[in-house]
Amino acid sequence: MPFSAPDSSLVRPRLVLASNSPRRRQLLTDLGVAYEVRLREVDESFPPHLVRAEVAEYLAAHKASAYASDLAPDELVLTADTIVCLDDDVLNKPADAAEAVQMLQRLQGRAHDVYTGVCLLAGDGRRVVFSDQTRVYFRPLSLAEIEHYVTQYHPLDKAGAYGAQDWIGMVAVTRLEGSYFNVMGLPVHRVWEELEKLGAVGL
């Protein structure tokens, strides 16, 4: 019987997560997706004319481009960037505790938008870039509450100086419009859908 080579289209790409975020790692793990972590330093500045979702998508795509030359043909890298927008102001990671307090003082008592941009770049050149938006409502917070959170939870690695899964999410977030997981750093419903299209996951 003649030997038949396997159909290369049935070979599932190996997922590479290019993120240091423990929340993104946990979400992918909970999703049941196998992956390896690969990290490198990437500049996170962006052109000043970009706004809202454009910023998140640009940063995710920019991060992915740093891995393009090293990807094997059967690899697929996932990069993501989460930003918090108050009106059109982008609140990224605070530089220090004082800036974290200032950010939370601006957010308290108001609604803001969280955007997570995602880029999936395959070693064979296929690329998908998308973003998801969640509107988050904060109740008014006292300065004591804000300072307690910043002191006890050190949210300097989080856009907007807060994590929805932390203490402040429990006491401050009154409601969400959109995906909670998007606020945590990864719109897993969209990620799963796009990974399915690329053949990286499936049941």
TrEMBL record:
Reported cofactor(s): a divalent metal cation
Organism superkingdom: Bacteria
UniProt site positions, description: Important for substrate specificity: 23, 82, 165
Top-level EC class as recorded in UniProt: hydrolase
Alphabetically ordered keywords of this record: Cytoplasm, Hydrolase, Nucleotide metabolism
Catalyses which reaction(s): UTP + H2O = UMP + diphosphate + H(+); dTTP + H2O = dTMP + diphosphate + H(+)
CDD domains found in the cross-reference section: Maf
Subcellular location: Cytoplasm
Active site: 81
GO biological process: nucleotide metabolic process
EC number(s) stated in the UniProt entry for this protein: 3.6.1.9
GO molecular function, one term: UTP diphosphatase activity
Any Pfam family matching the protein: Maf
Keyword Cytoplasm (UniProt): yes
A single Gene Ontology CC term: cytoplasm
Family: Belongs to the Maf family. YhdE subfamily.
Reported function: Nucleoside triphosphate pyrophosphatase that hydrolyzes dTTP and UTP. May have a dual role in cell division arrest and in preventing the incorporation of modified nucleotides into cellular nucleic acids.
NCBIfam families, sorted: maf
Protein name: dTTP/UTP pyrophosphatase
Gene source species: Hymenobacter wooponensis
